[in-house]
Specification:
44% helix, 7-stranded parallel beta sheet, Rossmann fold, alpha/beta
């Protein structure tokens, strides 16, 4: 008889869907708990058809999951509505009635209540900031606590990024990881203490846990999967790849120095006769950032399909991040045949072999990024070979591989 595992996540994303699929395929899924889930002909499917309802399309799940799904939509619907009405006080960090934190805590409490009423749950798989009450309830039922840490440990974040603020103080207000209250940070630590196994998506995330003061349970490193690869799409891209003219560089993500953006601007300015830069992502109200954007092609925020299209149209994606648990834009770009320059503080070292399917550089080191960009300028023929390498890597690890590996390790721990 298979172990039955409760899966919980307030909002859902690609990796949550992969976990859901993996548990279902392995016949280990007990139930799936979230805020809003769109299924054919349910209320959220109906709401998605009205103006402004596209948000609900992002919450779609495969039909097989509907009978397993428990929804607690109240707080999340409030957050969505408050955002559309620009009621910022209601979504203020931690304290707003419909803040992201309040959504997480609401789901966590509801899941804990559900666990306390059941006797057929062997394990609970849930995520950072939404696990504390669920884990306490699971312990009372002698169920295993499986903890997914999608970002690096908070104390490592503070230590590493404080160094960066000293290096580039003009970018200080784009670092938003310093707003969390002591109560929230304590909650994160309490979740780690209760966990029986910790799952992370990169060696870097696992390494940040060395800053945790107490003893840790086993840590499993399982990199995420890649989106589907369309070979004919890639072949067309590489046929039109130019070996003259400017190299087309792309950045996708929040326009913050946590992503190494200042280093990008510095290097691109130095080699502006050879490269051009396009940026996609949400803005911070930072004077230095706005000045820099005047010299480049800024496209604002875009839907996911349009982002993939832009990745397909560019030669190289820049991801010199200073702190990332994984960096989904890397796997997305590689699935489009676009190789990545990635730092050593993300999943770059786990999925990229330097010069074969991408390039690696040292985080927070402008000279390291410059050396890679210069090597590409001096030998731009390598872009095609590295693009093939990136495509092959993406083809070898679809999301199904991540799901299978995860469920296998769960089976070993239970």
């Amino acid at each position: 008889m298979s172990n039955k595992i409760l899966l919980s996540h307030p909002t859902g994303n690609a990796n949550v869907r992969a976990v859901l699929a993996g548990l279902h395929s392995a016949e280990q899924l007990h139930s799936f708990h979230t805020s809003v889930a769109t299924y054919p002909n349910n209320i959220f499917d109906w709401m998605s058809r009205f103006p402004g309802g596209k948000e609900f399309l992002k919450r779609s799940y495969p039909p097989y999951a509907q009978c397993y799904t428990k929804q607690y939509p109240y707080k999340e619907l409030g957050r969505i509505l408050a955002g559309k009405l620009s009621l910022k006080d209601l979504t203020a960090h931690e304290l707003g009635k419909f803040s992201v934190d309040q959504v997480y805590h609401h789901i966590d409490r509801q899941v804990a209540n559900y666990i306390s009423r059941r006797s057929d749950i062997n394990a609970v798989y849930t995520y950072e900031d939404g696990a504390l009450a669920s884990f306490h309830a699971a312990k009372e039922k002698n169920a295993f606590c499986l903890y997914d840490l999608p970002t690096g440990y908070w104390k490592a974040n503070r230590i590493l990024l404080e160094q960066e603020i000293e290096r580039r103080p003009e970018w200080a207000d784009t670092f938003r990881g310093f707003k969390d209250s002591e109560e929230k940070l304590l909650r994160k630590d309490q979740e780690l203490v209760l966990a029986d196994t910790i799952y992370v998506a990169s060696s870097f995330t696992a390494d940040t846990l060395k800053y945790f003061k107490d003893e840790l349970p086993p840590v499993e490193i399982i990199p995420y999967g890649f989106p589907p690869v369309k070979l004919e799409h890639i072949e067309a891209k590489l046929k039109r790849l130019k070996l003259n003219g400017k190299i087309k560089l792309l950045f996708v993500g929040k326009l913050s120095q946590q992503k190494g953006l200042a280093d990008i601007f510095e290097v691109v300015k130095k080699y502006q006769n050879y490269v051009e830069l396009t940026l996609i992502g949400s803005l911070y109200d930072n004077k230095t950032l706005h000045e820099e954007l005047k010299s480049h092609n800024y496209l604002g925020t875009m839907s996911h399909p349009l982002v993939l299209e832009q990745m397909h149209m560019h030669d190289v994606l820049l991801f010199p991040s200073l702190f990332d648990g994984f960096g989904m834009v890397m796997s997305e770009a590689m699935s489009q045949g676009t190789p990545v320059i990635a730092s050593d503080r993300c999943a770059g070292p786990d999925i990229i072999r330097h010069g074969e399917n991408g390039w690696l550089m040292q985080a927070g080191n402008t000279e390291s990024l410059e050396q890679v960009v210069l090597s590409i300028i001096q030998n731009r023929e390598q872009i095609k070979d590295v693009s093939y390498g990136a495509t092959y890597t993406a083809m070898k690890r679809p999301w199904e591989s991540y799901a299978a590996e995860l469920t296998n390790t769960i089976r070993m721990h239970l």
